[in-house]
Amino acid sequence: MVRDHEEANRLLRDLLRAIDGGEIDIDLFERISVGLRRHIYAEEEDMFPRALQARPDLSAKVSGLEMEHASIWMLLDRVEGEIRRNEVVKAPKYVQEIYDILQAHNVQEEKDVYPVAGTDPPLASFRVPDGWVCRKLRRPASTGH
């Protein structure tokens, strides 16, 4: 998972350089988006539950990391929306925000969560199910009242 953090940072820096050059590399952005969403899925469905089982006192830390996942997820959605509409105006700002969030976010995961969660999941085997969103963006189930 640490290597995945490093790869995401590298790809985001490449994308930011392309944006500084006056273009957005749509294929590179798509690769970043798919990778970040898979990474978030693996953390929320595998790593975080294992860490919380071992250390329930990490619940506030994990909740904060999940909030950051939600921010990243929404920013990815915004960039994708601009690309679909062919009006890439705020995308450079959003990509920079994703990069900025990840700098502190990744350090916290690597320091506080990963050592407790144990072995890394086989990331390549994870597929984000259609319709899945990160925990903090899910609507509460209706209770029928």
Question: What does the oligomeric state look like here?
Answer: single chain
Q: Please indicate the count of domains.
A: 1
SSE order: HHHH
Q: Radius of gyration in whole Å, from Cα? A: 16 Å
Number of helices: 4
Structural shape: globular
Proportion of residues in extended strands: under 5%
**Average residue pLDDT:** 93
Low-confidence residue ranges:
none
Structural class: mainly alpha
Sheet with the most strands, sense and barrel status: none
Compute the number of strand runs. Answer: 0
Description:
The protein is mainly alpha-helical and 145 residues long. It has one domain. Helices cover 70% and strands 0% of the residues. The protein contains four helices and no strands. The chain is globular.
Describe, in short, the structure shown.
The protein contains 4 helices and no strands. The chain is an all-alpha fold and 145 residues long. The longest helix has 29 residues, at 26-54.
Can you lay out the helices and strands and say which pair or pack?
Elements: H1 2-20, H2 26-54, H3 59-85, H4 91-117
Helix pairs in contact: 1-2, 1-4, 2-3, 2-4, 3-4
Protein name: Hemerythrin-like domain-containing protein
Domain Hemerythrin-like: 1-116
Name a few traits of the molecule.
4 helices, 145 residues, globular, single chain
